[in-house]
Input
Amino acid sequence: MIGEVTGIRKIRMLYLQLLYRCNFECLHCFHGKRLQHADAFSAEQAVSLLTLMREQYGTEAVTLLGGEPFVYRDLAQVVRYAKEELGQRVEICTNGYRIERRLTEIAPHLDLLRVSLEGVGSTNDRIRRFGSYQAALSALDLARELGVTTGATMTVTSRNIDEVLPLARILQTFGVQQLKLHHLRAVGNAADHPELLVTDPAAYSRLREELRTAELSIEVVVDEDLSEHGAPEICAPAAGPGEIERIEADPRGALTMSCNAVGKDSHAFWYEKSANRIVHRPSATDELTLGVPAVVYARA
Output
């Protein structure tokens, strides 16, 4: 259905939000009140969507997230199916809080563990949860022992923009290969915390210059909205004609192609779990009608 409507025939990665439930309530979380909702994929539904995306769109990789994916009961089953049955690259995005036992269980099937951090020490803990900083570092340390490649994500806010470089240097010591920086979008919990928004866009230019001259061994990837004049109004696609880099499925089955539309109920497509099919549900505010541009990431 996506191909018939858009001409897209290839989708490289599925971002699969397994559930809304989380053990954190981060100040900037785009889910907002939905963190309390019970919507989730069953293991059978998750496997069916993975298979459908592989067969119809040649999807090569999956990123499992939530909510918090490590509180999802059937995580190991989904990870093993994606890796062993579909031969996909499997990534997990997690808060890294008390995941040691389950991480050890799935490590042989995991290509990348990406841990979310929002600064150093108390800066992170005030945004995420008390004790979460040390827990995240412990998870990264264990992943290194288990031979799992690691990355990190950080949403740049007024509270942590000055700690991007210090955090990058700390992550290097844990063998983290990449730090991915996101632009804060005022949806979900972030809409209730406008104080987190960076009001001086020149601060992004200063940050990028610091990163450019820092001689880091860790790769830093930056959302192009983190620039003084913002990203181009129409972003060039990262993939070739008829291809997109990713599509995101939320726990209800809503499918969103641009990160700019995630959290805004701007989806034009829906995965019907019971029928195992994708349907087109256009609206005046969907991402196709509004022409929402894709988010472009580039090396800092």
Remarks:
- The domain at 2-299 is CATH 3.20.20.70 (TIM Barrel).
- The two ends are 36 Å apart (CA to CA).
